Structure formats: structure tokens, C-alpha cells
């Protein structure tokens, strides 16, 4: 089901990605890098990396970890090669983390960083950070799946004093919105698509949300993925993104054709009433003798 669900996102990526020709042969491997020693109470970073002999531009990964031994304290996508997130990385209460996104520029090589996850070791024990699913797509304009390997990572939390805590990220700069667009959905004329590119190199993007107008009042704020379907008569959208430190950035865009046709009847009525009022008072005005 997940492979089908990602195809609309791949169509979106195709607008930005270069089209490659020919047949690609090679291997794609996902791996996780962690420190050698982990003790209870220690915070450590796990780097989700990819090595690939073929150019890739989309990823769909589900990680699992034992929540009784490890706790996710932070997710940092600031240094990720993924620049177009369908959803920001999501951590569930079941001990799962999903990341789905891609890049306008294809990646090929070793040690490509997808995500940095900060864990805290809760107690001693053996744990495994596993790839429940790990899919990558070749940048060939067709959404072809790459052949992937994704070995699980076994680790041990051993007795000892907690190691020095990782320093907090210093980030006083809000995220940057590189693209914000509201356009007709080419596949469904009854809705519009909100698309965006937003990045934060210091701490990464934590969440994106938006609200819209179909007439005069704003809708409620709602989390948005990339792209997000909105009503066909939406004429204004306010978009907001926050990084992992909490710095916000916001912007409003307008869809002028809808704005014009939505308010044209109102403008026409106002003009008619003003004209009628002008004629009425002109007739009532006493003539000069």
C-alpha cells in the first residue's frame, strides 16, 4: 500500500527532478551510524545514511526501535539531502519513525545523510533499530524502485555513568521559504494544490501548517504535507513553518482569478447601490431658483 501511496508524490518530484535516460544497474544500501558506547541516561545521535550506485530522488523509510529502552528526544533534518518533504519526519507512540521525501537534485554516492535522530538510553539492555521498510526511487522520471538493502542495527546499553549530554542546537534563524504556490490540480479540477519548499540548515523543519480563505473568514490551521489538496474556491492561503527550536516563518499567497470571480458579484452590487444612491440624492436636491 505504501508503494502506491507515494506515486502522487513522485509525480510532484518529477516536475523538479532531471530526467535520466538508460537503464541503471547498481545497489542502494541504507545504514545507521551510532557511537560505540552507550550507557543509561546518555543521549546519542543515530545518523540515517544511504550509499547508492544509482541516482536517487525519493525515499520512503519506516524505522522501529524499542521504546522501553530508547526514547527519541529530537529529529534533525537540517543536514538532510532530502529537500522536498511529503511529510516532516514523524515519531509515533508505538516506537516508529517515518520519513518520506525527495530531492530536486538526484543523489548518487556514499554517506548521504537522510536524517539525524537523537535518542536517549532509558535503561540497560539489548536493542535493535530496524528498517521496517526502506524504499528508494531512481531519478529516471518513471518512479522506478531501486534494489535496496537495509540491515538492522543491534546495540547494547551497558552499565556505566551517563556520558556528556549532547549540546543543544543554537538556532536563532527562522526557516526559509524557497517556494510557495497555489495552483489548479491537473488531475482533479475540483481542488487546488498547495506546494512548498522550505528549509532550515541549523535545526531542520519540525512542522508545516496552513489555513485558507474561500470567502472572508480563515479556516482552522491544519498540518500540511507536500503537496496538500485545498478546496477549488480557495483564494488565499497563509502558510507557516517552524524549525526544531521553534523559530517560525509565515507567508500569505493569493490566487487572483478566484479572488476576482468570488468578489465580482459583491463589487457589482456595491457599484449598483452607490449609483442608485447617487441618483436618488441628486433628484432630491432642491433646484436653484
From TrEMBL:
Parts forming coiled coils: none
Membrane keyword on record: yes
Alphabetical keyword list: Membrane, Transmembrane, Transmembrane helix
InterPro entries the UniProt entry points to: CBM2/CBM3_carb-bd_dom_sf (IPR008965)
Domain of life: Bacteria
GO molecular function terms attached to this record: carbohydrate binding
Transmembrane intervals: 254-281
Protein name per its UniProtKB record: Cohesin domain-containing protein
Organism per entry: Candidatus Liptonbacteria bacterium GWB1_49_6
Amino acid at each position: 500500500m505504501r508503494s502506491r501511496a507515494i506515486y502522487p508524490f513522485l509525480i510532484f518530484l518529477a516536475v523538479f527532478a532531471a530526467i535520466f535516460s538508460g537503464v541503471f544497474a547498481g545497489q542502494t544500501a541504507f545504514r545507521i551510524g551510532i557511537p560505540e558506547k552507550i550507557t543509561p541516561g546518555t543521549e546519542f545521535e543515530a545518523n540515517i545514511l544511504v550509499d547508492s550506485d544509482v541516482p536517487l530522488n525519493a525515499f520512503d523509510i519506516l524505522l522501529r526501535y524499542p521504546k522501553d529502552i530508547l526514547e527519541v528526544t529530537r529529529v534533525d533534518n537540517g543536514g538532510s539531502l532530502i529537500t522536498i518533504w511529503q511529510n516532516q519526519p514523524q515519531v509515533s507512540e508505538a516506537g516508529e519513525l517515518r520519513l518520506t521525501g525527495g530531492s530536486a537534485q538526484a543523489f548518487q554516492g556514499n554517506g548521504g545523510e537522510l536524517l539525524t535522530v537523537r535518542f536517549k538510553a532509558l535503561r540497560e539492555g539489548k536493542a535493535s533499530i530496524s528498517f521496517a521498510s526502506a524504499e528508494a526511487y531512481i531519478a529516471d522520471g518513471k518512479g522506478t524502485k531501486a534494489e535496496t538493502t537495509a540491515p538492522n542495527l543491534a546495540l547494547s546499553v551497558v552499565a556505566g555513568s551517563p556520558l556528556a549530554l549532547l549540546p543543544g542546537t543554537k538556532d536563532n534563524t527562522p526557516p526559509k521559504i524557497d517556494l510557495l504556490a497555489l495552483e489548479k490540480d491537473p488531475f482533479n479540477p475540483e481542488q487546488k494544490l498547495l506546494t512548498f519548499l522550505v528549509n532550515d540548515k541549523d535545526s531542520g523543519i519540525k512542522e508545516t501548517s496552513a489555513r485558507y480563505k474561500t470567502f472572508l473568514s480563515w479556516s482552522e490551521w491544519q498540518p500540511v504535507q507536500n503537496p496538500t489538496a485545498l478546496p477549488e474556491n480557495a483564494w488565499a492561503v497563509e502558510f507557516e513553518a517552524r524549525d526544531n527550536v521553534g523559530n517560525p516563518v509565515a507567508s500569505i499567497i493569493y490566487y487572483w482569478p478566484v479572488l476576482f470571480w468570488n468578489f465580482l458579484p459583491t463589487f457589482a452590487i456595491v457599484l449598483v447601490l452607490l449609483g442608485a444612491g447617487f441618483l436618488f440624492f441628486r433628484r432630491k436636491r432642491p433646484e436653484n431658483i
